[in-house]
Amino acid sequence: MSEISLHGGDPSVLRRLNSAATLRALRGGGEPTLSELAKQVGLSRPTTEGVLGELAGRGLVTEVAPRSGTGLGRPARRYRFRAEAGYALGLDIDAHWVQLFVADLNGEVVGSHRADLDVGWAPPERLAAVRAAVKTCLAATGVERSRLWAVAAGTPGVVTADGEVAFCTVVPGWQGLNLGRELGRSFPCPVYVENDANLAAMAERWRGVAEDADDVICVLAGLHTGVGAVIGGRLHRGRWGAAGEVGMLPELGLRDTTAALTGVPTAAGRAPEGGGAAAVLAAAQHDDPEAVALVERLAARMSRGIAAMALAIDPEMIVVGGALIRAGDRLIDELRRQVRPLCLSPTRIEASTLGDEAVGVGAVRLALDRIDENLFKLD
């Protein structure tokens, strides 16, 4: 970006442009000198110095101690972005657990915590346990609640833009709850809520196996199987937040996934996550004939729904994660074998590298995205 004159325009717009450009350059890492930063951004030294003063006043930039052994004369002034100026909190709220991650403004995780939840709890009990877990996590991390700039939570079900769980069969009593508003009572910053599979897709593209892919489907295989989609590098939610919910069609084989593997029917939301399914997958890894047959049957069942999403979006990669992937890669192998013949493109099918952390990591990414929107907005 070059330093330009806004003839007849609002000078504050130019200041905001210069501030955003300088902040982006510092967010890239390192400790550039004033001259290096001015050259990188395309501004004069005096203008850059003024911008740095404004950013320092906002707590976003600090001057670092001079480096020793740099020769005679006054050492060059160096600056860095203060990633510790604020923090993002990501939560994964499931029927069986809540998992939390605290990250600085560079996305580096500085603390985490996990607590088990009783699947039979009503929403008030579940929310109380979530709040207790937040308190424990922040205390252990040493981050004060007032230093959180954004909070994001992932949960099963269809989530509206204002944080209401419009549809959910996994967490008892969750449907109709405005989770964003309920969680918002506990924080002084904005709170965002998103579908768990959507956040897993964001996480896989940010720090998982799909880092180099712009078009990704993430299949979250658990009690039921959810699907999230990133198209052109951006999460695709759909108009009402229900994009990817092809599992609503029973004939596509993504409902009651755990029960289909174990052959044990379960009440909605009340099956132990993994449980007998993990034992079946572990036995399949050791070539137990009966377990292998069950895994093959499940893969054949799931392949219809996964292929339907692949045919609709034509992704570069399909990432499969969730509770049913933790016990080994036999299911992944079977899905590769049975999904690919149903697709028209050579779509890669890979196992998640983030495991059961994907939803929480994706929640951190969502919170950081919202923070960045505020940091770099020009209005």
Cα radius of gyration in angstroms = 24 Å
**Would you identify the regions where 5 or more consecutive residues have pLDDT less than 50?**
1-8, 266-274
Question: Which class of secondary structure composition applies to the elements?
Answer: alpha/beta
For the report, how would you describe the main beta sheet? 5 strands, mixed
Residues in helix, % = 25-40%
- Total beta strand runs: 14
Q: Can you list the strand order of the major beta sheet?
A: 5-4-3-6-9
CATH class descriptor of the largest domain: Alpha Beta
Give the CATH H-level superfamily of the largest domain: ATPase, nucleotide binding domain
Description:
By secondary structure, this protein is an alpha/beta fold. The protein folds into three domains: 11-81, Winged helix-like DNA-binding domain superfamily/Winged helix DNA-binding domain (Arc Repressor Mutant, subunit A, Orthogonal Bundle), CATH 1.10.10; 85-198 and 359-375, ATPase, nucleotide binding domain (Nucleotidyltransferase, domain 5, 2-Layer Sandwich); 212-353, Nucleotidyltransferase, domain 5 (2-Layer Sandwich), CATH 3.30.420. Helices cover 38% and strands 19% of the residues. The protein has eleven helices and 14 strands. The chain has helices at 11-27, 34-41, 45-57, 123-141, 179-184, 196-207, 257-262, 276-285, 289-313, 330-339, 358-375; strands at residues 61-64, 78-81, 87-93, 97-104, 109-116, 148-155, 158-159, 165-167, 191-195, 216-221, 225-231, 234-235, 317-321, 348-351. The strands form four sheets. It has a five-stranded mixed beta sheet with strand order 5-4-3-6-9. Helix 1 (11-27) crosses helix 3, helix 2 crosses helix 3 and helix 8 packs across helix 9 (289-313). The longest helix is centred in the C-terminal third of the chain and has 25 residues, at 289-313. Residues 1-8 and 266-274 have low confidence and may be disordered.
